[in-house]
Queue: 2 jobs
Job 1
Amino acid sequence: MFTITRGRLALVSAVAVGAVVALAGCASGDPLDEGGSAEGSETLVVGSQDYYSNEIIAEIYAQALENGGFTVDRQFRIGQREAYLPEIESGSIDVFPEYTGSLLQALEADAAGGTADEVYTALEAALPDGVSVLDRADASDQNSWTVTQAFADSYGLTDIASLTAVTEPITVGGNSELETRPYGPTALKEKYGIEIAGFTPVEDSGGPLTVKALVDNKIQLANIYTADPNIASNDLVALDDPDGLFFPDNVVPVVSDKVDDSAAEILNEVSAALDADTLVALNAQSVNDQAAADTIATDWLTEQGLI
Amino acid sequence: MNLFASAIDWILDPANYVGLNAIPLRIGQHLVFTLVTLLIASAIAIPLGYLIGHTGRGRGLAVTTSGGLRAIPTLGLLTLVALWVGIGVVAPYVALTVLAIPPILAGAYTGFEAIERRTIDAARAVGMSELQIVRKVEVPLGLPLLIGGLRSATLQVIATATLAAYVADLGLGRYLFSGLKTRDYAEMLGGSILVILLALVLEGIFALIQRFVVPRGVSGRLGTTTTLGTGSPAAAR
């Protein structure tokens, strides 16, 4: 009897110890943990948004840097800007592919728009100490208000302002943060007097679910990024934005002080080669061919002679 | 701790009790969604489970299939169904029903299986038809385990129903998604606390139901059979 009790006690203890060890393992697995000191100062942390196209660019940066002899720690798919911006500002991330206009608006809510260069200059001034931007690429991946070709045809839609001609209720679909963005449904109403009937959350950042909802006419207006190959392949129209509701969003690496001149040179070479068509083509490889980000990055860098 | 206080403030803020994003409205949507999901899942899983439990056939298949269903990631299934039927409530209903079926199915057939075989033989011996055995013996005696299965399904559905907000303007998940993506952690934690409270309330209700559905006299008889050394009735508790 006593042996049985002791055996059971041992079993219970073993389970308890196992659980504690397992939980302790969980606790130390913070994905945003800096861990810089242990890995030495040579390690550059490259981050990316939770957006496939951004991940491809981040992977391109990472591989180019690795080719230049740097050790890279990849912290990809962190989230949307609200989630990772504090990490960049605190210097936990050293290289992050960003978009000039959206980043500027995130840093200064009342920033003025303008041309790609004006926005870039304003962004340089708006960045906090210890964080800077390198050269911007010609490639841009802007927000847009996108409708289907059929919807555009039936109301003669060309630019955002022409949405006032729409007589049926317009439901907007997109990530829930779209509701509060400076170009969101509220801005459409205040700036253009466009009546928005409702907002439907589709939390995939203008991905396949959003495109399907547009094509199915479950939503009429969606925020789809202009470098998205789905716009061409699904007969969608990104409405013109002559008033600059959306800021120009050129791809630009945001870097910390840990990025030295030789690393900056590598990233600038990448940006110089990255033009608008290239970005759409890279995205298409991911969306249409289901290629992995690292494969796409290696292929492109090899083709450009950058690695 | 500070965050926790601001989450409580968020829950108590009167501004969150008006309009289309009001807390009571979201709670109502969440409850209705959970209830309908459980009804659909029950309509599929209970008859199937009773059939398996009564005939003893297809148990292996049921165990493997429901085990497989449990392993399906709900968000993945939700996205897949939404890509097929489009955004809206249909995809979440399908995904969550798949989540709810295994525990209910298991509750239904184990409820039948846990019944003392001699009890059923006795029912047959006194001349009950198979249908009468199911209705008058197996269903009442299997009820505690079925309710247990429903209870576990409810808990899973009410927590996972937050995913409905991924493709529909529905439920408490809206606070989680919008809080997460706009760094409004008070809203996010507040929404989570509401989900936890709902889950606890439903747990309490089910605990009560489970106590009352044990047929009168069963507990006493279980005592005598246990001393006889058969383990299965104890498993039924």
Job 2
Amino acid sequence: MNVVEAFVLREARLLDEQRYAEWLELFAEDAVYWIPTQPNQASPHDALSIIYEPRTLLAVRVERLMRGEMHVQSPPSRTVHHVSAVEIEGDEARSSLIVAEWRAGEARWFAARVMHKLRKEANGLRIVVKRVDLVDGEAPHRAIAVPL
Amino acid sequence: MIESLVRGDAVHRAAYIDPAMFALEEERIFRRAWLYAAHESEVPNAGDYVLTRLGPEEVILVRREDGGLSALYNRCAHRGARIVSQPSGNARQLRCPYHSWTYRLDGSLVGVPLAEGYSDTHDLQGLSAVPRLESYRGFVFASHSAAGASLADFLGGLKSAFDNLVDRAPAGTVTRFGGSLRLEYRGNWKMFMENAVDLVHPNFVHRSSVDAARVHPEALEADAITQQGAEMFLANGMRAAQWDEVPLHAFPGGHVYMDGFYRQGVIAPERDDPVFERYRRALIERHGADKAAAVLAVDRFNNLVWPNISVNSRFGAMRVVRPLAVDHTVVDVVCFRLDGAPEEMHQLTLQFVNLAASPASLVASDDLEIFERCQRGLASGTNEWINMSRGAAGEMRADRRQADGSIVSGGTSELPIRHQFETWKTWMAQ
């Protein structure tokens, strides 16, 4: 398997295994994690985003995920991040993502196109941008706790 | 009967869980009160329209050729099909996709194909208009009731929330921008409005984001976007005594605002940077130094316009609470650009709202979780009464009547919730 594809699949698996600290390590110091609200949103500065976080804020998000008093993860979700149709072009990987989430007796699904922009660093590949374009980014959503 | 559901210090759970009570709210509150429809900047030109929800109804808000606005029920006068299905757009006429009945932008009927075949006994009608439509400083409201107080009287003491938002714009107008964030929860709509002025909950509900932000003090030294996000997370960690210093103002009509929030020094009311300085100079140019200082000194956090709006003038944001069922609510969060202000300020607005109000927000997501737990919890047990007594009696009671007609309480009092229910009772009882 291609090393980039393996990286993208591992990133998704770390979320399913709730290994959030290791997941955060995959992001470069200048990384951005972005879930726009609008289809084809050109910039995070034109419109609202479900998440637009530089790594410093992503670190706060991960810190919270690992704390017991986080109500919206008590009990925690179980998820399957299903990644497919990975295409690699230059430093970018594009893929399709389906996330099945089960929590507190209820199941729900997300569907998205994902773009990873990657960089080779001394300690291996790192994410510079992870962009998750939900099919229904502009729709109402219940609380989202586990990253997509 | 309704009166018996609201006591001074408790409310019957039927108000949150009984579908019949929700139906009565639709009839007596959401079919009568002034409800926010849209902002004028969303429909600047003739033919521009947006779809909006006014309580239980879907409405087309459209700019006519004469420059005025029409609010039309989105239902063809013939067979009832929705006329408009795009959330926004521009049209010269409104045409039903089913049998092509066509209407002017004021709703009057232009023409009907094969008109001669329809029964003469049935008048061919135009689209029905929402009975009342008024703007306050660019914010468009409508009411399904032909009778009632004017919009200005209805907004009463909370006109000031819109005044402050618009007065912050150096060009004198604000423009809706950035789309919207939409949250959904399986709980009653009133929970959102109560929680927005409940200052006991942040320390408990938002503990995880406070603690997580405290582990990462470097966020306070980062770029402006990160810094204001970290400040916002940390603000929820103020001690109870500090929260009590945040005065809550309750106005006739059920409106409430939270004052003196930024003075607590956790979220900066103004920024000490070149962008803000440019902005301040532009504002002084418009208003003069004294008024500009007064406009910037308004440091309210949530301004709640009863029944279903929360305005944050400092951060140019508004939340509109949309009740769908007794146990199902959607909240739309929108932003406004301060016309004439530096572009960087609008980026800060967007990013603040992302972090504070998104369904994935470290803060809002825990609120949504609590609403759903309340909704499920309320249905069980034999205790039919919900406590809202904090600050109603005893040592904590320090309500003060102000010259502007408001009653002020300490921040951790449940005065605003009791006040909202007094208004609720008045509308629901008749």
